[in-house]
Amino acid sequence: MTKNTKLAKLVSFLAALVMMLGSFPVGYNVTVALSEGESDVTVDPCAGGHTLTETPAQEATAEQDGSTAYWTCTECGKYFSDAEGQNEISANSWIIEGSAAQVAAEEEAARKAAEEEAARKAAEEEAARKAAEEEAARKAAEEEAARKAAEEEAARKAAEEEAARKATEEEAARKAAEEEAARKAAEEEAARKAAEEEAARKAAEEEAARKAAEEEAARKAEEEAALKAEQEAAERAAEEEAARRAEEEAAQKAAEEAQISEEIDGEPAPELDKPEEEPDDYDEFDDFDDFEDFGDDDDFVILDDWDAGTVSDELLDKFNNVSNYEEMEFNGTAEIELKNEGYLRFGDEIKLEAKVQDVNLSYRLVWEANDDDERGWYTIASGEKYSYTLTADNLDREYRVVLFSCD
Fold first, then answer.
1. What is the arrangement of strands in the sheet containing 52-55, beginning at the earlier edge strand?
2. More confident site: 83 or 286
3. In which domain, by residue range, is 371 found?
4. Residue 28 needs a FRET pair 20 to 30 A away by CA distance; which of 7, 80, 137, 263 works?
């Protein structure tokens, strides 16, 4: 219960007491005991002025008392002998006793005594009620304080438990973070070692590949040297065969001339031994400068498995016979595609492939090379694919393909 609530109840009680007694002492002080301490409260309802009601004067008779004129304040209950409320008087001081005054005074005294007793009892009951209310309020306050204390204690324990829980979670999180950091460090170390091992493995593979390439280059160089020696030997053999044939032809021509000369002289020329005819040899087809169209399918047939690198001497003669030619327009395009990927090194096998498009006649495809010397372009192979070993000698060599119509 607050101080203002207690004060309001006290004022209500005093107003009820005034109405019951019909009068109240002039001026009063009220002391109120509150749970927060004691306070003196003075109630002055007429601080701004009294509200006066006049009671006229009456003469005393044998039957009743008389009175002087007086004024009563309807707010505070005080009595005054003047209309301005300046001269305060006590209750009943205005009575003028008559013959019945004594009886009336005794009755009045008895009535007042009864009223005072009733007021005393009422005051005691009110005091007892207030004491009971105050005791109940005190107990309620104690219970409220105990409840708040219990709630505060529970809140304190809950806060301590929450703090302990958070501390446990933070410790667990810290340990998890440390373990995660250790795991990542271990993974990074393993990755670093794996990278070093992979680098070492690649270096070993590259070294092995380099050595293998060097060995392969050395082997190919030996093969090229051997092939070159074979080619030179074949060229020498061809030159010797050509010289032998030239000598035989010269001897045959001399014999024919001698026979003609004898016939002219009138004597039959002796029968000369003709050199044995050797079967047509298939020579390496190294020069295609004079290779032109040939129009008779009976004399020249293109086969899928035909070796374009060789051709008979008889067929070459037919190629060089202009009377066998038939003019035909030959259309087609060819591009060279490098099939290797990545960097190229000496000793690698270079693979080339010719892509032929939009050809309207049968054809032969011939590979030619140019070393930028007096030989110019020369034939090296035939077919759609060509491969060679990359060396310092052929590094700057140019390559091209030539299409020859076969229809």
1. 52-55, 70-73, 79-80, 88-89
2. 83
3. 281-405
4. 137
